[in-house]
Design brief:
It is a single chain. By secondary structure, the protein is α/β, with parallel strands linked by helices. The strands form two sheets. The protein has a six-stranded mixed sheet with strand order 1-2-10-7-8-9, with helices on both faces. Strand 3, helix 4 and strand 4 form a beta-alpha-beta unit. The termini are far apart. The structure holds pyridoxal-5'-phosphate (PLP). Pyridoxal-5'-phosphate binds next to helix 9 and helix 13.
Length: 350
């Protein structure tokens, strides 16, 4: 049977009924890529898996939450949705909003959104409003607007987003036959770590897995509110998707960490870029910088990992979202020569 999206697949675990009209772009069902080259390179006697969320229809895991949030908004009779976004939420909201025929408004921090994400929101026909402020300011604004006007908020404070996103954990358990030992994930607004932990616990409680993973949340050093224990007023990082100074699901992220005996740690932009290059050049997997934070985190914490463990890293977004960053940090530059075969062969060193 044709795969028809994660609500259809996991309907019995999600808040939908037989009469719910499902808004889907066939999101979910993403690859779990075994990363043996990376394990060898890190000298880790473990199985590393990369959950490649970049293969979702708009190129990030946000589609998992958005199919649920927009399906429910439509079911509840809403005519418009709104979100604050570092980019991927706006792309997903705009796409699912278009599919559902809803008016979509997205607020973005002016100048801090990757080009791929911006172009998506514009193409899907959303009203894109760039504010002179950061993500945290944008989120405050959309919370206020959705309180006072008939517009549904589709940020991850919308509980349906978490419901959709928890299905990533279901897919991992089904692919591995059990939960992994360690689950590395970037932490921005902290909705996704909350969602995965919920998903793992639900399948564990249903007897579909024998264990729960340690939740290893990774923040960027310049935006590491949870690690540092206080809000960051002016968060900075090259990983714009996690450039957030006051995570909305802060408490839930700490609960996931503590209940799973995991950790929330931070990595520098330099280490994120190293992981970004390493993933692409050793595994053939291009993920956007924020998505490489968990891999940088794994590298940082590798001496604490038990041998023979199964490790999953969530690669939250596609590397094509941020081509400027790829071109800036790629290890091999474009080499130029004439169209003469002799020159080409000489340049190739043959
Ligand atoms: C949204 C996003 C994150 C952060 O997820 P949270 O749920 O906000 O913690 C990480 N990486 C990418 C690519 C994202 O789009």
């Amino acid at each position: 049977m044709r795969y028809n999206g994660l609500i259809d697949k996991y309907r019995e675990y999600l808040p939908v009924s037989d009469s719910t009209e499902i808004i889907t772009l066939c999101e979910g069902n993403t690859p779990l890529i075994k990363a043996d080259n990376l394990a060898r390179k890190l000298e880790l006697d473990c199985e590393i898996y990369l959950k490649y969320e970049g293969s979702n229809p708009t190129g990030s895991f946000k589609d998992r939450g958005m199919t649920m949030a927009v399906t429910k908004a439509k079911e509840e009779g809403s005519h418009a949705i709104i979100c604050a976004s570092t980019g991927n939420t706006s792309a997903a909201a705009a796409a699912y909003g278009a599919k559902a025929g809803l008016k979509t408004y997205v607020l973005i921090p002016d100048g801090y959104i990757a080009l791929g994400k911006l172009s998506q929101a514009m193409m899907y026909g959303a009203r894109v409003i760039a504010i002179n402020g950061n993500f945290d300011n944008a989120l405050d604004a959309v919370r206020e607007i959705s309180k006072n006007y008939p517009i549904t908020l589709v940020n991850s404070v919308n509980p349906y987003r978490i419901e959709g996103q928890k299905t990533g954990a279901f897919e991992i358990i089904e692919a591995l036959g059990d939960a992994p030992d360690y689950h590395f994930i970037p932490v921005g607004n902290a909705g996704n770590i909350t969602a995965y932990w919920k998903g793992y616990r639900e399948f564990f409680n249903l007897g579909k897995s024998k264990q729960l993973p340690k939740m290893m949340g990774i923040q960027a050093e310049g935006s590491a509110a949870i690690v540092k224990g206080h809000k960051i007023d002016n968060p900075q990082t090259i990983a714009t998707a996690i450039r957030i100074g006051n995570p909305a699901s802060w408490k839930q992220a700490e609960a996931a960490r503590d209940e799973s005996k995991g950790t929330i740690d931070m990595v520098s932009d330099e280490k994120i870029i190293e992981a970004y290059n390493l993933l692409a050049s050793t595994e053939g997997v291009l993920a956007e910088p924020a998505s490489c934070a968990p891999v940088a985190g794994l590298i940082k914490l590798k001496d604490t990992i038990k041998p023979k463990s199964k490790i999953v890293c969530i690669l939250t977004g596609n590397g094509l979202k941020d081509p400027d960053c790829a071109i800036k940090y790629a290890k091999s530059p474009v080499e130029k020569t004439t169209s003469d075969i002799k020159d080409i062969v000489k340049l190739m060193g043959l």
